[in-house]
TrEMBL record:
GO terms for molecular function: DNA binding. Keywords: DNA-binding, Transcription, Transcription regulation. The keyword Magnesium does not apply. Pfam families: AraC_binding, HTH_18. This is AraC-type DNA-binding protein. Residues 190-288 form the HTH araC/xylS-type domain. Transmembrane segments: none annotated. It comes from the Bacteria. SMART domains: HTH_ARAC (SM00342). It comes from Maribacter dokdonensis.
Length: 291
């Protein structure tokens, strides 16, 4: 059983704006409860603001509290699901990469810190004042989405751009994000993360990625160390471990098959690698997760 990947078309229901979805959060979870009631990933960028409600939000095996003022960001491929203790309220919007970047040719989604790197936290806690202000903007976005006013798409794009700018300012003020040494280092890290995502099943050594980036292994390590205070090997291992956890929990495969899928023909070696990184064996992790 694979983790379901939800596509933006599943939510649109004949909405006139292609590749964009906006809704109140309460309506969203009611309408789409059969789609979102179990762990899943997306092929789009997502932003949620909570004005009421409590619970937890699990994103790639990290659990975060839900409360008023929380904003969550998700990139394509991240696995998540919600658990609510009280009725949530707020707003949600999501869109394809093309929907935003075709309108802002000189400004990519990766330039926002919450979408830039997997190393940056996928959430933000707003102050009461900021929550009141941004809730009004989200409401305006929702109203504009539902109505057929003149220059509707232009205003929607402007509102989303404004929301992302305001959230970036709050995010960089309240959250410790990676210190990017230079634009060239930021570019190398971004390309490295994409390469790791594409090749980690078969390529587990820094040398492969350094060659792909046309730099030395030593320089690649320097870039990773300067930007996120880790080694290239650690970054590769973290990506392997994330996929291992996804497969262990969200598939019915036996653990030897999981190891084989990840490129480890020797299950004992894989189990040892997993325990070094998590403090438990794959079987213990599967049991604890479903306890």
């Amino acid at each position: 059983m694979k983790i379901p990947v939800l596509h933006i078309s599943q939510f649109l229901k004949n909405k006139p704006l292609h590749s964009l979805y906006v809704n109140s959060f309460a309506d969203h979870i009611q309408i789409n409860k059969n789609l979102i009631n179990k762990p899943h990933s997306h092929n789009f960028y997502l932003c949620v603001i909570f004005t009421k409600g409590t619970g937890t939000h699990e994103i790639d095996f990290d659990t975060y509290p839900i409360e008023p003022g929380k904003v969550f960001f998700l990139k394509p491929g991240q696995t998540h699901f919600w658990k609510f203790e009280s009725q949530p309220e707020g707003y949600i919007f999501f869109h394809s990469q093309e929907f935003y970047e075709l309108k802002f040719l000189d400004h990519s989604l990766n330039s926002f810190p919450f979408f830039y790197s997997n190393q940056n936290p996928p959430l933000l806690q707003l102050s009461k004042e900021k929550l009141i202000h941004l809730t009004t903007v989200f409401q305006e976005l929702f109203t504009e989405y539902r109505e057929e006013n003149l220059l509707r798409e232009a205003k929607i794009i402007s509102l989303i751009h404004y929301i992302y700018i305001e959230l970036t300012r709050a995010y960089t003020a309240d959250t410790i994000i990676e210190k990017l040494g230079s634009n060239s280092y930021a570019n190398i890290l971004e390309r490295l993360e994409k390469l790791i995502n594409a090749h980690f099943y078969t390529e587990k050594l820094p040398k492969f990625y350094a060659e792909k980036l046309s730099i030395t292994t030593k320089h690649l390590n320097r870039v990773v160390q300067k930007t996120i205070s880790k080694t290239t090997t650690t970054l590769i291992s973290e990506r392997i471990m994330l996929e291992a956890k996804r497969l262990i929990v969200h598939s019915n495969d036996n653990l030897a098959n999981v190891a084989d899928t990840l490129g480890y023909s020797d299950y004992a070696y894989f189990s040892k690698f997993f325990k070094i990184n998590t403090g438990m064996t794959p079987m213990e992790f599967r049991k604890i997760y479903f306890h």
